[in-house]
Design brief:
By secondary structure, this protein is an alpha/beta fold. The protein has a single domain, classed as Carbamate kinase (3-Layer(aba) Sandwich). It contains 8 helices and 10 strands. The two termini are about 25 Å apart.
């Protein structure tokens, strides 16, 4: 089986918690040890936002801010790579072109951002599509998709499933500036729509949530297409 997991920026704090990152790596290793393949996409997190905001205050345009954020996501990807056991085959990918080849040859492929205007959510969707993966799991700092931001409105309703068109509506209503792709940016949703990739949103607070989602168990929010 081949799975893509987008690890949200919440995993990568301003002062990275190495024990948390190591715990995540150890849990995901169990999936790979069963002769499965895993592609991980690292988000930017707070450090990316800090640097992007500083660059913006210094007068940088959004493309430059995106490039700066990409560098941070790639640094986070490197932290992930280091966190896996030495005996585990882990490589870093920096482009989509070689991704299918790398995925076939290695147990784990890790990557960050690729190009300006493209969130790591879009990267994850593209990675799942180009490698013909069986599932995409988007692990964030909440336990799924809500009708509104649950951090701002405690009465927001949790959704067990969400149609891709509704997901696009939510994405269009959010911010798409560098470093502020709230849930998913519209590009990421359009990629999911065309590929009809089986996708779940889960909380990354417990790595077991991700493993359960990969197995297809009822956890988090499932994206539906029909």
């Amino acid at each position: 089986m081949r799975a893509v997991v987008k690890l949200g920026g919440a995993l990568f704090r301003r002062d990275p918690d190495t024990s948390t990152i190591k715990h995540m790596a150890n849990a995901l290793t169990r999936f790979v040890d069963k002769n499965n393949q895993l592609l991980l996409v690292a988000g930017g997190g707070e450090n990316a936002r800090v640097y992007i905001n500083a660059a913006r205050k210094l007068g940088a345009e959004e493309s430059t801010c995106d490039l700066l954020g990409i560098q941070i996501t790639r640094a986070n990807a490197e932290l992930l790579r280091i966190a896996f056991p030495e005996e585990t085959s882990v490589v870093i990918a920096k482009s989509l072109a070689r991704l299918p080849e790398l995925a076939r040859a290695n147990g784990i492929v890790v990557m960050g951002g690729l190009q300006p205007g493209q969130s790591t959510n879009a990267v994850a969707a593209l990675a799942a599509e180009i490698t013909r993966s069986q599932v995409l799991v988007n692990a964030t700092d909440v336990d799924g998709v809500y009708t509104e931001d649950p951090k701002k409105n405690p009465k927001a309703k949790f959704l067990n499933t969400i149609h891709v068109r509704k997901l696009l509506e939510l994405a269009m209503a959010g911010n798409v500036f560098a470093g502020r792709y709230e849930l998913l940016d519209p590009l990421a949703v359009k990629i999911l729509e065309r590929s009809k990739m089986p996708t779940r949103f889960v909380s990354l607070s417990n790595p077991e949530n991700i493993l359960e989602a990969i197995k297809g168990n009822d956890i988090g929010t499932l994206v539906v297409y029909d």
